[in-house]
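Researcher: Here's the sequence for the chain we discussed earlier.
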Amino acid sequence: MIKSINKGNLVVTVEELKKLKLSRVLEQLEKIKGRGTELISLYIPPGRSISLVINDLHEEYSTASNIKDRVTRHHVLDALVTIMQKLKLYREIPPNGLAIFCGAIAKPNDPPGSEKINIFEVEPIEPISTYLYRCDDHFHLDILKDMLREKAVFGLITIDREEATFALLKGNKVEILDNITSGVPGKHRAGGQSARRFERIIEEMAHEFYKRVGDYASKYFLNVPNLKGIIIGGPGPTKKEFYDGNYLHYQLKSKILGIIDVGYADESGIYELLYRCDDLLKDVALIEEAKNMQEFLEKLAKGGDDVVYGFDDVIKHLENGSVEKVLVSSNLDLYIVEMICMNCGFKDLIKVEQIKLNEIESQGNKCKICGGTMKVSSSKYIVEYLNELADKTKADVKLISLNTGEGKELFNSFGGIAAILRYIHKYN
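Model: Thanks. This is the structure I predict for it:
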């Protein structure tokens, strides 16, 4: 048996799981199109009085009563009543607010007139500040989509011989931290001995300036949580001289993602740097994903005894504790549902797409043992289910997007789930 190696319990965090669940819900809502302007989107910030919201909806009900098209009027009024009834079940708006989407929705290929009122309640993963009511032919999802954007932090430095600027990029927000000047004079044009002496003085001043830039970088970046990397920009060779010299703290130097040409070293240079390094920032998370997938594919190519793939095999090895790392596609839209027979008590686990989850919960299944009716006892999103199993055995869980060729291969060729083992454990 190969010696067990455990790199720590790096399961998917609660925040990552919330983001993934919200992403799946938004994908579902984005596909829904209304017959007319009859799909309602309602965003309620935390702390808002429910009774006041219901009063506002009563006013919208009065307005909607004047809609000329009979079917649209009927659908909008029914949706408003459904929302008001749902709100009465809440004692208060949740801490992050509440988003409600409601409307008359038909199943694919169903004829006109078969629409039924559906309501979706979403608790945002971050507090919302906007109170919004919209009635349209689609659901308004931008407020929730903004919450899914990358919130990693990046350090930005622009530098030339005259000045340096420091900034942080947090999600899609830029925070300018400081700008310092060097006091280094321009090149001396006169010849002779005095010129050479003056050049030495200039180089010494530049050296001291680079040291000061390094100190400021430590001051602003060393203790920043979630700092994913640092990008240096500026005109001419100064940025490279600064990077090549021993001016940056070793922890910061290891986080340098790139050195990019921009025209200025002031605040405008920071924004130019952002424009020019867009692809670089996007690729940071993908590099880690690609490394994890390459490790799996290399082991598979060498014989594959220390890797498995497919839901059933991965679950077996997770349960016996032999998994070091689980690779799961963020595109998997599956729930793991535990069914129990109401007659003989037989339990079964099934995989269900989110779109079919409500149908299974309402209709049940037929028992394999006695033919009785099986009902849902619990359902969990697949990443949440894997997370709980991995937590028990201190395995890592890595989410893999479709943004790389390897990520697409995981989803298309390996069922969206694979695992790298700590040691080989073969089943008969």
